[in-house]
Amino acid sequence: xxxxxxxxxxxxxxxxxxxxxxxxxxxxxxxxxxxxxxxxxxxxxxxxxxxxxxxxxxxxxxxxxxxxxxxxxxxxxxxxxxxxxxxxxxxxxxxxxxxxxxxxxxxxxxxxxxxxxxxxxxxxxxxxxxxxxxxxxxxxxxxxxxxxxxxxxxxxxxxxxxxxxxxxxxxxxxxxxxxxxxxxxxxxxxxxxxxxxxxxxxxxxxxxxxxxxxxxxxxxxxxxxxxxxxxxxxxxxxxxxxxxxxxxxxxxxxxxxxxxxxxxxxx
Length: 267
Known about the structure:
Blueprint: H1 21-24, H2 33-47, H3 54-60, H4 64-67, H5 70-90, H6 100-114, H7 122-132, H8 147-151, H9 156-171, H10 174-195, H11 205-213, H12 215-233, H13 238-266
Helix pairs in contact: 2-12, 2-13, 3-10, 3-13, 5-7, 5-9, 5-13, 6-12, 9-13, 10-12, 10-13
């Protein structure tokens, strides 16, 4: 980023904010596009803050025997891993980041997800974490592949998210930004809920390494920074970028709702 590029802090999720983004988007002023973008992403992420969803509270409150059911843990893994897989795969098709400088910045994010030491990945780490707490996994790691094939094994709400992710990620940077900004929030909420029943899960690399090194916060900052660079150069992309961010946030709500249905049925 050059000295002339605008620097806007990544948004902080504020649960008290009440956005009305859909009517504001069309009236945003291109001259202040990066600031407008940051404000709108903050509004969207406040409205759709994952940790506000009942799933996390209900998972934490499950009776011990129910929470340790291998089948239940396997279904939670399936839905959550499918959603995460969809975004990890879709990030390879992000538009507008094709210059050498921006490709290098994308590569650092790819490495954080899929190029960990020893051939490890976030996908494998997540599956190991669930196996280590006794989950009976519904699908093996390499069965998470083509989105359409995966959707045949999923419920409609999760399948909607899995189908949307590659479409939206390839169209604009909005879906990517909103997911990156919210990811630390949901990972901490999930870790805390699982830790009520499995205290050692906080030491699993999937959680520990992300929290220890601020991986998700760094990804949020990078997503916001590079998208602001693109929008400064091409302000006409703002409305589409924000529209896709909101669509993705709403679809992610559906994932947490589906997970809550699974947990509620186990109580």
